[in-house]
Amino acid sequence: MKYYITTPIYYPNSSPHIGTAYTTIAADAMARLRRMKGDDVYFLTGTDENAQKIVRIAEKAGMDPHTYVDEIVGKFRELWQLLNISNDDFIRTTEERHAKVVQNIFDRLFEQGDIYKSEYEGWYCTPCETFWTANRLAEGKCPNPDCGREVELLKEESYFFKMSKYQDKLLQYIAENPEFIQPVSRRNEMIKFIEGGLEDLCVSRTTFKWGIKVPFDPKHVVYVWLDALINYVSALGYPDGENYHKYWPADVHFIGKDIMRFHSIIWPIILMALGIPLPKKVFGHGWFLSREGGKISKSRGNVQDSFELLRRYGSDPIRYFLLREMQYGTDGTYSEDDLVERLNSDLANDLGNYVSRTLAMIVKYNEGKVPNPGSDTELEKELKDLSVRVKNSVEEKMLSCDPAAALESVWQFISRCNKYVDETAPWNLAKDPAKRERLHTVLYTFADSLRILGILCAPFMPGVPEKIKPLLGGEDFFGDWEQAEKWNIIQPGTVIRKGEPIFPRIDVAQYLAELNAAQVSQEKSQDLAPTKEEISIDDFAKVDLRVVKVLKAEKVEKTDKLLKLEVEMGSEIRTIVSGIAQHYSPEELVGKKVILVANLKPAKLRGIVSQGMILAASHDRELEVLALEKEIPSGAQVK
Fold first, then answer.
1. pLDDT digits over 492-509, tens only?
2. Which residues touch 139 (CB under 8 Å, ≥6 apart)?
């Protein structure tokens, strides 16, 4: 079967962030699974470059738009490579292959009377690339809940597309094809929006020159949404390309919920006007929200450097965390603390530990060779039956665009495998020569279950089978999805090895200490570093800074970075864990009066609850705790 899946094309106005990465990773997992099932897959992603906001950002950076987008697009391509994204094509709307199709479609819609020239006057939001009527504005600003910024009143000659002409036809199509817009909550939102009445769509601009020219009226450039949406067919070579005839209609447009209206209303109507089949499904996933609340987005300035996260944790942990945290139809929550916790509990403890200890037992109890198995007991039969159910469940969940639920199914199998180790207790079987055959059956089941785990994890974490492969004799067992329900595949006598843990644990204390140090220091000269976003006096007033006296200090066991301090704050004694042990000995701090962030949420470090954070200044590798020279009483407020 053919399978055509797309992400949205992303604005290259800055480096890709976590929300962008999620969309692409999830689409990649769906594409990988379909390839493993033997389907003929075409997976498209790309960048949307013909936008007014690109012009303004490039001008602000002192660059021409082409040079600016080339640099940012390079970062998208680099990130997708680091995340093991398996896209078959990367479309840029500045490419000639795209521009030709856009002009062809514009011509055709104009000739058949679906595009007409008029004058537009309305409120325009540049970041959203959207015109709004006055009655849709929210207190005079952009009504997009993720924006809320100022809009500008524009009046210019424009071409318009007759959206209203196809309103009833689209409603009928949605009613007859309930799977077309998913999840159901998004479908209901779109129906309500359409029933409120569709206005004709402005599809050209004259106030800037960056973009695709209207072929018969070159003072106009094609407005971004007619331009951008056409990428899904221009990448296939519409109207005569072999790939277009082979892969269209798309099986899934996988997008964020904020652009549902464009993909499930504007795009289908354009296709209806052209007589082109509609995509089978438009799926709008939720947003990633920061732990403090609010969507993670470039405009909010609360994104984390994706490249830095990959450097710290690697591709598979990032892929796993994002896919597991975004529950079907709802928003997900992102924080690096949660990522570390997931990595340790799910990947290091559940999966990684199972791989390590089962291989270690084969090495210990059978000289590192996969033994001949004996007869199955109910335990083996139960495990094998579960693998079939899990495989089928993963397929079903991924067909519904629900990677989180699919991974939950995979982890049911991992959990059962860990339980199987405890139930069979091979360390006891090894003590009794009469139970040698039973031991061999258990050890063989270990090896074959690792093969199945590699297959089940492959769509989500493509690095896992690559890590397991050399441990199971080097043979590639992992490309065929159907093998996830078949057992007794590994040949007895296969030489295995333990290897390094496939997911080493993160030292939480060290991680938090480094995070603490990062909050009070910068690696580069502070004189050259830019100041952070301005805050109001009300924001600053939320931070409760207090003078405290250090009563006791000692090193925290099994770490070279942490000190445990007891400090006096007025009549209260608090315990503080601080990552300053490489800069101060305990005796240097006793008696000092230092500054404490007193209303910081407590955190547990190495089993010790830390009730605040000591302020320090840093430069390069130097760090100094901020201490008071005058006799200011402990507990005094710092203002």
1. 999 999 888 999 998 877
2. none
SS3 state of residue 421: helix
* Sequence-ordered alpha helix ranges (H) in 48-198: 52-60, 65-82, 96-111, 167-176, 184-195
Q: Which two tokens stand for residue 169?
A: 């036809």
SS3 assignment, position 26: helix
Q: What is the largest CA-CA distance in the chain?
A: 91
Q: Which of 287, 288, 293, 266 is nearest to 278 (CA)?
A: 266
At residue 130, what are phi and psi to the nearest 5 degrees? -140, 135
Kind and range of the H or E run holding 394: helix 378-399
Secondary structure class of 585 (helix, strand, coil) = coil
As assigned by CATH, the class of the 508-625 domain is mainly beta
pLDDT in tens, 152-189: 887 788 999 999 999 999 999 999 999 999 999 999 99
Rounded to 5°, angle at Cα 322 from 500 and 84: 60
**pTM of this prediction?**
0.77
Residue with tokens 């965390």: 321
Query: Two tokens at 324?
Result: 């597991």
The residues spanned by each domain of the chain are 335-485, 508-625
Residues 307 and 315: their CA atoms lie apart, in Å, by 10
User: Do 208 and 51 touch, CB atoms closer than 8 A?
Assistant: no
In this structure, the chain runs to a length of: 639
Cα 611 from Cα 206, distance rounded (Å): 59
Q: Say whether 311 sits in a helix, a strand or coil.
A: helix
Residues linked to residue 292 through DSSP beta bridges, in sequence order = none
Task: Write 260-263 long-range contacts (CB < 8 A, 24+).
Answer: 260/181, 260/186, 260/189, 260/190, 260/284, 261/190, 261/193, 262/225, 262/229, 263/8, 263/229
Q: Output phi, psi for 563, to 5 deg.
A: -115, 140
132, 125, 198: which is closest to 161 by C-alpha?
198
Query: How many other C-beta atoms can be found within 10 angstroms of the C-beta atom of residue 306?
Result: 20
Paired tokens of 519 = 């909050």
Residues 3 and 41 sit within 8 Å (Cβ to Cβ):
yes
Q: DSSP for 469-488, please give it.
A: GGGGTT----S-GGGGG--S
Least confident piece of the model among 9-13, 278-282, 464-468: 9-13
Q: What are phi and psi of 483, to 5 degrees?
A: -70, -10
Tokens 């906001």 belong to residue:
53
Q: Which CATH number fits domain 335-485: 1.10.760.10, 1.10.730.10, 2.30.30.90, 3.50.80.10?
A: 1.10.730.10
- Cis status of the peptide bond prior to 249, with omega within 30 of 0: yes
- Integer-rounded Cα Rg, in Å, for the chain is 29
Q: Which residues contact 357 (CB under 8 A, 6 or more apart)?
A: 421
Task: Using the structure block, give the residue that is written with the tokens 């924006």.
Answer: 147
